[in-house]
């Protein structure tokens, strides 16, 4: 794989060829994870794109690239939504999600997008901290938005990040 990089984390477009990798990552992050078919259907929606983060393998030792995480975005005109982001359990707290969001912002800004939105469960502290650190602000709340497998209903917060215009 070749792509943009930050430290030892590289980014490539999430094409259909990487969907099996993405499905294997998604199951590590969500109770209601998306299988390959669901991810392929999403990638087919106009305006949807993804980025895959990986750690390049050591070429001197014929090492394989290690998938670290991915993000999926849907954009319409000048707005975009993060529809999912996940990092492999073993790769968390190493800046992978921050790198993915920075990569997304770079691409969105280059395409004239001015506003990014997302929904996050009120009890998802890692994600809430991530988004706060990336400059997202709360703009709404959806009551009982998530149905948990243990029967609980959990609210979602709607967060927004407006890009500075140059
Ligand atoms: C949320 C998630 C994507 C974060 O990925 P990550 O690569 O570990 O995040 P990063 O290493 O880039 O961390 C960036 C910041 O997020 C916050 N953060 C990340 N994990 C955290 C944790 N477990 N506890 C508290 N804050 C956390 C911190 O502020 C962190 O900055 P710091 O390390 O400098 O303190 C990851 O935990 C994950 O895949 N979770 C399951 C799926 C999920 O909940 N996705 C979001 C749905 S809205």
Question: How would you describe the overall organization of this protein?
Answer:
With 166 residues, the chain is an alpha+beta fold. It has a single domain (4-162), classed as Aminopeptidase (3-Layer(aba) Sandwich), CATH 3.40.630. The chain is 25% helix and 39% strand. The chain has four helices and eight strands. The chain has helices at 19-26, 36-44, 96-110, 125-133; strands spanning 4-6, 9-13, 48-55, 66-76, 79-87, 115-121, 137-147, 153-162. It has an eight-stranded mixed sheet with strand order 1-2-3-4-5-6-8-7, with helices on both faces. The longest helix is centred in the middle third of the chain and has 15 residues, at 96-110. The chain is globular. It binds coenzyme A (COA).
């Amino acid at each position: 794989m070749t792509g943009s990089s930050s430290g030892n984390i590289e980014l490539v477009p999430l094409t259909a060829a990487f969907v099996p990798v993405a499905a294997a990552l998604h199951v590590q992050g969500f109770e209601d994870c998306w299988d390959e078919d669901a991810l392929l259907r999403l990638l087919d929606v106009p305006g949807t794109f993804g980025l895959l983060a990986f750690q390049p393998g050591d070429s001197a030792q014929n090492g394989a690239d290690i998938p670290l995480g991915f993000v999926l975005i849907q954009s319409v005109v000048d707005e975009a939504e993060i529809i999912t982001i996940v990092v492999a359990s073993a790769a968390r707290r190493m800046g992978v999600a921050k790198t993915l969001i920075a990569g997304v912002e770079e691409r969105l800004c280059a395409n004239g997008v001015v506003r990014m939105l997302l929904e996050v469960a009120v009890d998802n502290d890692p994600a809430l901290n991530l988004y706060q650190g990336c400059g997202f602000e709360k703009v709404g709340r959806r009551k009982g938005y998530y149905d948990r497998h243990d029967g609980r209903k959990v609210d979602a917060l709607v967060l927004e990040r407006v890009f500075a215009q140059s």
